[in-house]
Specification:
Layout lengths: L3 H7 L4 H23 L8 E5 L5 E3 H17 L2 E6 L6 E2 L6 E9 L10 E9 L21 E7 L3 E6 L4 E7 L4 E6 L10 E3 L10 H12 L10 E2 L5 H11 L2 E4 L12 E2 H14 L3 E3 L16 E2 L1 E4 L1 H9 L3
Parallel strand pairs: 3-5, 11-12, 11-13
Antiparallel strand pairs: 1-2, 3-4, 5-6, 6-7, 7-8, 8-9, 9-10, 13-17, 14-16, 15-17
Helix pairs in contact: 2-3, 5-6
Bound molecules: 1,6-di-O-phosphono-alpha-D-fructofuranose.
1,6-di-O-phosphono-alpha-D-fructofuranose (AFP) binds next to loops.
Length: 322
């Protein structure tokens, strides 16, 4: 099986980017180990603190964030990082050539039930003019990403990653500690009969998504004329992994509850990296108003509505917005 380095070289990734990706993955391997220790290492449960988004932090959120922060700071490749668990950007090496954004532990509410969780990351070039503590350099649209991926801590530890030359799946071989390519250039099926949405929020949705989901649930007796199945992992990494592997549509749509929070998912740490992976696998990623990767961020913790997945199903969903 092909190793990570060979795949990245084949895809034309420059040496420094390869070294940076390997640094991120070294951190993820440590997170994978900590996660697998669970209650034995006393890492489950919440801390007494909240992150900048007002969410109670789990112990593993804090541990995972610290591991990635320390690893990236020491590497020298990175000028600054932004993390879902940090109030503002974290300055690193003033001469670093890259910026890294990450959600250190997506789906952390799943830690207590030993269910799917993961780390999501994206990488962009660091502008020359940028001061390491200047958040404005992170306000680039997703089209500027040079790499993005997630590591899924499931029954196997898996990596999905793209450098803009297709999306590849890797599995961590714990016998020698390397990620091996187990599926290259994956293609998301264009059609699907599976959707993922938190239906308990239905009363807060806008009209187009209300009608779309109503028609999916109507199944073969409704206008879509086929029966759909629903799945919800409550961790975007788990839901997107399923969609990448066998198709589907994942939606966290616009929500009328709080105008300052039009969607739950964060543009930099969740929506953009997943959109890059999805598009590189032939799927679509939209907010309902346009391509996710073209959204110009206004602040690092910005949230956006998300519709991602099988091409024809996302197009069908978008037709309700027209
Ligand atoms: P956490 O990282 O705070 O656990 O949130 C996970 C997440 O942002 C995303 O991964 C899920 O799709 C979504 O929240 C699930 O949220 P609800 O099930 O609460 O709607």
């Amino acid at each position: 099986m092909k190793r990570l380095n060979s795949q990245l070289q084949q895809d034309g990734a420059p040496l420094e980017l390869i070294l940076l990706i390997r640094t991120i993955l070294a951190g993820c391997k440590e997170i994978s180990f900590r996660v697998s220790q669970g209650a034995l290492a006393g890492v489950l449960g919440s801390t007494l603190s909240e992150n900048v988004q007002g969410e109670t932090q789990k112990k593993l959120d804090v541990i995972s964030n610290q591991i990635l922060k320390d690893t990236l700071r020491e590497s020298g490749y990175v000028k600054a990082i932004s993390s879902e668990e940090e109030d503002t950007v974290v300055p690193c090496n003033p001469d670093g050539n890259y910026l890294v954004s990450f959600d250190p532990l997506d789906g952390s509410s799943n830690t207590e039930i030993n269910s799917l969780i993961g780390t999501i990351f994206s990488i962009t070039h660091a502008p020359q003019w940028m001061k390491p503590d200047d958040p404005s350099a992170f306000l680039q649209p997703g089209t500027q990403m040079v790499a993005a991926g997630y590591v899924l801590y499931g029954p196997s530890t898996m990596l999905a990653m793209t450098t803009g030359r297709g999306t590849h799946l890797y599995t961590l071989d714990k016998t020698h500690g390397g990620f091996l390519v187990t599926d290259s250039n994956i293609k998301v099926p264009e059609d699907t009969a599976e959707f993922a949405i938190n239906a308990s929020n239905q009363r807060h949705w806008e009209e187009p998504i209300q009608q779309y989901v109503k028609d999916l649930i109507a199944g073969s007796e409704g206008p879509r004329e086929k029966d759909y199945n629903m799945r919800w992992v409550a961790a975007m990494v788990g839901d997107i992994h399923r969609v990448l592997c066998r198709g589907g549509i994942f939606a966290y749509p616009f929500d009328k509850r709080n105008p300052k929070m039009p969607g739950k998912l964060r543009l930099l740490y969740e929506a953009n990296p997943m959109a890059f992976l999805m598009e590189q696998a032939g799927g679509l990623a939209d907010t309902g108003q346009g391509r996710i990767m073209e959204v110009m961020p206004e602040e690092i913790h910005q949230r956006v509505p998300t519709l991602l997945g099988s091409k024809n199903e996302v197009l069908a969903c978008l037709s309700y917005y027209k």
